[in-house]
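Deviation from plan, reported transparently: NDP complex.
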Amino acid sequence: MNPVKVGLLGLGTVGGGTVRVLKRNAAEIARRAGRGIEVVHAAARDTSRAHPEDIVGMRITQDPFEVVNDPEVEVVVELMGGYSPARELVLKAIENGKHVVTANKALIATHGNEIFAAAQRKGVTVAFEAAVGGGIPVIKAIREGLAGNTIQWLAGIINGTGNFILTEMRDKGRDFADVLAEAQRLGYAEADPTFDVEGIDAAHKLTILASIAFGIPLQFERVYTEGITKITREDVAYAGELGYRIKHLGIARRASGGIELRVHPTLIPQRRLIANVDGVMNAVLVYGDAVGPTLYYGAGAGAEPTGSAVVADLVDVVRALTSDPENRVPHLAFQPGSLSDLPILPMAEVQTAFYLRLRVADRPGVLAEITRILGSREISIEAILQKETDDASGEATIIILTHGVREGNMMDAIADIEALTTVKAPVVRIRLENLK
Ligand code: NDP
Ligand code: HSE
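Because the crystal trials were delayed, the predicted structure below was used instead.
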């Protein structure tokens, strides 16, 4: 049988990794897919970035529309990134009856509902395994492997750059800016690295995970998002003293009134496997009612790990080329007509525990005032740690860990605590999850 002809948009980090994996493992891939897979036409603005050996045998253009309009191309692989022209290119490829593979989580999280509807109408597939967790086949695991479960919650370290920065800062005392520059050199970071450090990339990925876990439409705009830029060495050290690690987590949870969707720094007990996922590695913990907890771990970014996921999607698409479109695995795991309208909960309604760090005047009665305020908001304390007083200022640091609480109650309590004259600085609050 003739090889399947692929058009590639983007020859950067992931484009290069994909081409190298396809070439090196061509024979194994053909044995799995039943046909060879060959990139015949590729687009990039600066083609000098591509390794000459990688592009042997391809027609190269600077205009990606030439690729999506090429009648020889059967599958388009979008590895350019960004919203536009990626959206227009993917929609054009679909209109032209081509299957699409993409690693572009920003595109899927924000325009996925439109893209999947167009693909459904045209009877083509849009595959996006590489969009979440780099090389970890977590989309396939949730969409297919856990199809017998009602998913209760999932929590993941889903940004490699952020985890790399936090690990290097904690273990080697390196500067934030210095580690971010290294992540960029290694090809881990997004074109705009604020997406990595402000949690936007993780929110894109959480949007996708929540849709396939709960069968809800993609709702990126409803994700609560905090990045890693405000985490201090001080909090990392205090968390460590109390037996916790601070990780940047994406959390999606089925709660009584709807779905929690949130991305933020989180204390997790050091003994949990996921607390020990370091560097560029990612991990997603998924709790299904039948299977219990399952954990998916691997490289969250980088050329060949991400190429591995892109190629796996290509193999799936090639296998599905001859199957009836109505009988393929649905894009968002659930049949398009069966998506649920469960509401996404406002942050005030989310249930979570907290780590609080307070700077207070070291005077009798201060702690009693604080605990009275917490008690009045139905917040129960799990642990309190008072650090030695700073002689010069006469101020002390108090660390409080709470049990689970309605977030709105905690925000009200913090406002009351900050209004006390004995509290000398804004209260630092980091959410805490036991992930049991
Ligand atoms: P790069 O910036 O390394 O590569 C992007 C490629 O697309 C470059 O070849 C670029 O050309 C080309 N390109 C961009 N815009 C255009 C355009 N308008 N016309 C023609 N060519 C264009 O990005 P990555 O490979 O890192 O990322 C690609 C996608 O994969 C993104 O969606 C990213 O989020 C996703 N991803 C990345 C991972 C990673 O580890 N890097 C992991 C998982 C997903 P030029 O260089 O000339 O600008
Ligand atoms: N910038 C992303 C990350 C790439 O660091 O996780 C992988 O999606």
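The chain has a mean pLDDT of 96. We consider this an acceptable substitute for the interim report.
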